Amino acid sequence: QVQLVESGGGLVQDGDSLRLSCTASGRTFSSYAVGWFRQAPGKEREFVAIISRYGDATSYADSVMGRFTLSRDNAKNTVILQMNSLKPEDTAVYYCAVCSNYGYRSSRKYDYWGQGTQVTVSS
Description:
- This protein is about 0% helix and about 50% strand.
- The chain has strands spanning about 5, 10-15, 20-25, 35-40, 45-50, 60, 70-75, 80-85, 90-100, 110-115, 115-120.
- The protein is globular and about 40 Å long.
- The mean pLDDT is about 95.
Protein backbone atom coordinates (compact mmCIF):
# COMPACT_ATOMS: atom_id res chain seq x y z
CA GLN A 1 0.00 0.00 0.00
CA VAL A 2 1.11 3.55 -0.73
CA GLN A 3 0.08 6.60 1.24
CA LEU A 4 0.27 9.96 -0.52
CA VAL A 5 0.29 13.46 0.92
CA GLU A 6 -0.02 16.60 -1.18
CA SER A 7 1.19 20.00 -0.06
CA GLY A 8 1.92 23.44 -1.45
CA GLY A 9 -1.51 24.69 -2.36
CA GLY A 10 -2.72 28.16 -1.55
CA LEU A 11 -4.25 31.42 -2.75
CA VAL A 12 -2.38 33.24 -5.53
CA GLN A 13 -3.01 35.91 -8.12
CA ASP A 14 -3.58 35.45 -11.84
CA GLY A 15 -0.15 34.86 -13.45
CA ASP A 16 1.58 33.66 -10.28
CA SER A 17 3.29 30.34 -9.67
CA LEU A 18 2.85 27.51 -7.19
CA ARG A 19 4.82 24.37 -6.49
CA LEU A 20 2.84 21.34 -5.36
CA SER A 21 4.49 18.35 -3.75
CA CYS A 22 3.32 14.77 -3.51
CA THR A 23 5.19 12.72 -0.93
CA ALA A 24 4.71 8.98 -0.64
CA SER A 25 5.30 6.46 2.08
CA GLY A 26 6.51 2.99 1.27
CA ARG A 27 9.51 1.58 -0.51
CA THR A 28 7.72 0.81 -3.77
CA PHE A 29 7.18 4.39 -4.90
CA SER A 30 9.45 3.95 -7.92
CA SER A 31 7.23 1.11 -9.09
CA TYR A 32 4.47 3.54 -9.94
CA ALA A 33 3.74 6.23 -12.42
CA VAL A 34 2.36 9.29 -10.65
CA GLY A 35 -0.49 11.37 -11.92
CA TRP A 36 -2.04 14.66 -10.89
CA PHE A 37 -5.73 15.37 -11.17
CA ARG A 38 -7.87 18.30 -10.18
CA GLN A 39 -11.50 18.87 -9.32
CA ALA A 40 -13.24 22.20 -9.35
CA PRO A 41 -16.56 22.77 -7.56
CA GLY A 42 -19.42 21.24 -9.49
CA LYS A 43 -17.12 19.61 -12.03
CA GLU A 44 -15.76 16.15 -12.57
CA ARG A 45 -12.21 15.24 -11.60
CA GLU A 46 -9.92 15.82 -14.56
CA PHE A 47 -6.47 14.67 -15.56
CA VAL A 48 -3.67 17.21 -15.29
CA ALA A 49 -0.37 15.39 -15.83
CA ILE A 50 1.49 12.11 -15.37
CA ILE A 51 5.14 11.16 -14.92
CA SER A 52 6.64 7.74 -15.53
CA ARG A 53 8.30 5.60 -12.86
CA TYR A 54 11.78 7.00 -13.40
CA GLY A 55 10.76 10.42 -14.61
CA ASP A 56 11.88 9.87 -18.20
CA ALA A 57 8.44 10.54 -19.65
CA THR A 58 5.71 13.05 -18.91
CA SER A 59 2.36 13.89 -20.41
CA TYR A 60 0.11 16.88 -19.84
CA ALA A 61 -3.45 17.92 -20.43
CA ASP A 62 -3.77 20.48 -23.21
CA SER A 63 -5.07 23.04 -20.72
CA VAL A 64 -1.79 23.07 -18.76
CA MET A 65 0.74 22.26 -21.49
CA GLY A 66 3.62 24.70 -21.43
CA ARG A 67 2.66 26.08 -18.01
CA PHE A 68 2.96 23.06 -15.70
CA THR A 69 6.01 20.83 -15.28
CA LEU A 70 6.32 17.52 -13.49
CA SER A 71 9.46 16.09 -11.93
CA ARG A 72 10.22 13.36 -9.40
CA ASP A 73 12.89 12.31 -6.96
CA ASN A 74 12.49 8.64 -6.12
CA ALA A 75 15.17 8.82 -3.43
CA LYS A 76 12.91 11.26 -1.60
CA ASN A 77 9.64 9.59 -2.64
CA THR A 78 8.49 12.94 -3.99
CA VAL A 79 6.87 14.26 -7.13
CA ILE A 80 6.77 17.99 -7.83
CA LEU A 81 4.17 19.79 -9.94
CA GLN A 82 5.51 23.22 -10.84
CA MET A 83 2.65 25.44 -11.95
CA ASN A 84 3.47 28.71 -13.71
CA SER A 85 1.29 31.40 -15.29
CA LEU A 86 -1.66 30.30 -13.21
CA LYS A 87 -5.14 31.30 -14.33
CA PRO A 88 -8.43 31.55 -12.42
CA GLU A 89 -9.65 28.46 -14.29
CA ASP A 90 -6.86 26.48 -12.61
CA THR A 91 -8.70 26.86 -9.30
CA ALA A 92 -9.44 23.39 -7.94
CA VAL A 93 -8.47 20.77 -5.42
CA TYR A 94 -5.37 19.03 -6.75
CA TYR A 95 -4.78 15.34 -6.10
CA CYS A 96 -1.84 13.07 -6.76
CA ALA A 97 -2.33 9.39 -7.38
CA VAL A 98 -0.28 6.36 -8.40
CA CYS A 99 -0.79 3.95 -11.24
CA SER A 100 0.99 0.71 -12.12
CA ASN A 101 1.41 1.78 -15.72
CA TYR A 102 2.37 5.02 -17.41
CA GLY A 103 0.00 6.78 -19.76
CA TYR A 104 -3.42 6.40 -18.28
CA ARG A 105 -5.53 9.53 -18.00
CA SER A 106 -8.60 7.89 -16.47
CA SER A 107 -8.84 8.24 -12.71
CA ARG A 108 -10.21 4.70 -12.55
CA LYS A 109 -6.78 3.33 -13.42
CA TYR A 110 -5.15 4.83 -10.33
CA ASP A 111 -4.76 2.73 -7.23
CA TYR A 112 -3.97 5.12 -4.38
CA TRP A 113 -4.84 8.77 -3.85
CA GLY A 114 -3.83 11.62 -1.62
CA GLN A 115 -6.30 13.80 0.26
CA GLY A 116 -5.84 16.80 -2.05
CA THR A 117 -4.59 20.36 -1.71
CA GLN A 118 -6.58 23.46 -2.59
CA VAL A 119 -5.31 25.85 -5.24
CA THR A 120 -7.16 29.13 -5.66
CA VAL A 121 -6.21 31.65 -8.34
CA SER A 122 -7.84 35.06 -8.07
CA SER A 123 -8.26 37.44 -11.00
